[in-house]
Amino acid sequence: MTTSAPIESTLLTGLAPVLAPGIRILILGSFPGARSLAAAQYYAHPRNQFWRLVSALVDEDLAALPYEQRLPRLLAHGIGLWDVLGACEREGSLDSAIRKPAANDFERLHALCPELKTVGFNGQASGKFAGQFEQAGYRTVVLPSSSPAHMALSFEQKLQIWRQLVASDAPDLPAPAQGSLL
Questions:
Q1: Quick check: is 177 in a domain?
Q2: Which keywords does this Swiss-Prot/TrEMBL entry list (predicted)?
């Protein structure tokens, strides 16, 4: 009788947040994919539509810039990046393969980003946390995933929904409360 040895999983650690005091919008993914972790870059997979979508929102071709120039430009447009999870175990890049998730610490978010009003969730996996951010006083938008694994909508259909992040008719919300998040 042959038995196979258990597969050892390693704990993966996410990327550092891209935040600044003046951001008004924060886009949260679930956890970086394998290519993003290997490159230490948000949305590094060449077929991920994130940089194209954000470029269309801010009317600047961020996708054409080297990665190290994208982040300061994104912040200049008042947009930050982070992920809901700070660590997990996962084989591959699919959210469905995430095991032992550990959420990022969002407790200091209000102090770090006092102008933050809107939190966008890039896909349904991160969108499961929208209610906690709403309760803390943030406007939330659950977005269709920019991942190449989610191509049910065309780029134009996704962009139409992503435009809700920067909608000029977004309600003026009171400043989010310093409360408990996650």
A1: no
A2: Glycosidase, Hydrolase
